[in-house]
């Protein structure tokens, strides 16, 4: 899975203004390998792209690589100001994570 990690890192560093601040952590779980891409908050939009096009392209490449390795590979994008949530890799929605909307109707 190091090749997939290196691919994500190379793509992300090419897209941002501060490549030295880009990092990729690999979390190997029994059924999935999660790649956690951390970039400065001001650079997150460059990684996601318009309407999520760049993020979708990176995820597509991971899907192809995962198929070859017979593992599911996922990409999580976060800014470097988010600490990793205890026991997981995403922050709760109330703290700015990617899980749904916390507003009540």
Summarize the structure in words:
The structure is a single chain. The protein is of the alpha+beta class. The chain has three helices and three strands. The protein has helices at 2-15, 44-48, 53-69, and strands at residues 23-28, 32-39, 72-79. A three-stranded mixed sheet has the order 1-2-3. Strand 1 (23-28) and strand 2 form a beta hairpin.
Percent in strands:
15-25%
Please outline the major beta sheet.
3 strands, mixed
User: How far do the termini sit from each other?
Assistant: 43 Å
Let me know the average pLDDT. 82
Shape: globular
Placed side by side, the strands forming the largest sheet appear as: 1-2-3
- Structural class of the secondary structure composition? alpha+beta
Short description:
This protein is α+β, with helices and mostly antiparallel strands and 105 residues long. It has three helices and three strands, in the order H-E-E-H-H-E.
């Amino acid at each position: 899975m190091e090749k997939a990690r290196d691919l994500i890192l190379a793509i992300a560093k090419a897209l941002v203004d501060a490549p030295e601040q880009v990092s990729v952590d690999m979390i190997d779980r029994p059924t999935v390998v999660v790649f956690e891409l951390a970039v400065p908050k001001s650079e997150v939009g460059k990684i996601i792209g318009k309407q999520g096009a760049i993020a979708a392209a990176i995820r597509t490449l991971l899907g192809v690589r995962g198929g070859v390795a017979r593992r599911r590979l996922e990409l999580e994008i976060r800014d470097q100001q988010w600490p990793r949530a205890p026991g997981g890799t995403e922050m709760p929605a109330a703290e700015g994570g990617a899980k749904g909307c916390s507003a009540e109707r």
